[in-house]
Amino acid sequence: MSKKRKKLNMGNTGPLVDVIRREIGQPLRGVEVGVHRGETSALLLRAFPALHLYLVDPWTTYPESHLYRQSGDGCSKLTQAEQDANLRATVENVQFARNRCTIIRATSVEVGEQFKFCAVHGKPLDFAFIDDDHTYEGVRNSILAWWHNLTPGGLLAGHDFGHPRDRRGIWGVSRASLEWATQVEQKLCTSGELWWITKPEEAEEAGDGPSYGRYQAGVFYSRLKNVFL
Ligand SMILES: C[S@@+](CC[C@H](N)C(=O)[O-])C[C@H]1O[C@@H](n2cnc3c(N)ncnc32)[C@H](O)[C@@H]1O
What we know:
Elements: H1 3-8, H2 15-23, E1 29-33, H3 39-47, E2 52-56, H4 67-70, H5 80-93, E3 101-105, H6 108-115, E4 125-130, H7 136-147, E5 150-158, H8 164-167, H9 173-183, E6 189-191, E7 194-198, E8 218-221, E9 226-227
Parallel strand pairs: 1-2, 1-4, 2-3, 3-8, 4-5
Antiparallel strand pairs: 5-7, 6-7, 8-9
Helix pairs in contact: 6-7, 7-9
S-adenosylmethionine binds near residues 34, 39, 59, 68 and 133.
């Protein structure tokens, strides 16, 4: 394994499986936002045999002026060729569960907003795992985009809480997650660098808004319309 690959190996999301098992049991629908090479996705799909997982990542490049790029995240500096290779690795890593996966190549907010009011297989998501752009704005936007897609009792979780860059205020994972927990009057739980908030049972259900249709298993490109693989 090359030095670079080693450095970018995200890993360290193992406790997520235990937390989901403990808090939800056997989830049926979930999303991972920020997928990289699909290593955590494969972990989740192996641990939960009935899970249909939505994998959301634009697998794209960012200009130097982009806040995400300025946050120093290794993934923000990848070339398009490297991102394309990461998407291919993802497809390979989740191949064993291809009928339970929907890979969507688009940004968190773009997909989360279109998911809004769109019940997946008739129901909202059991969990959303937010692990994309770790700037305050990035985490906050992802929380706002995905909270509404969760079922009451569902789990909003994320990664890199208290990471050294987060502690130094370069990233905003703890700030955004703590703010949201306060806003929805729920407890913010952490274990290592994992954070999660349970959506209260009495929380308003997603309403009868516009429907964007159901996502099928497969790989979709940008704006959720063009099947490209
Ligand atoms: C920390 S890595 C994800 C690691 C992965 N969750 C794992 O456990 O192996 C961050 C990923 O977020 C993606 N990303 C960056 N900005 C994004 C956005 N706005 N929406 C979705 N994904 C994004 C990057 O392309 C990168 O693949």
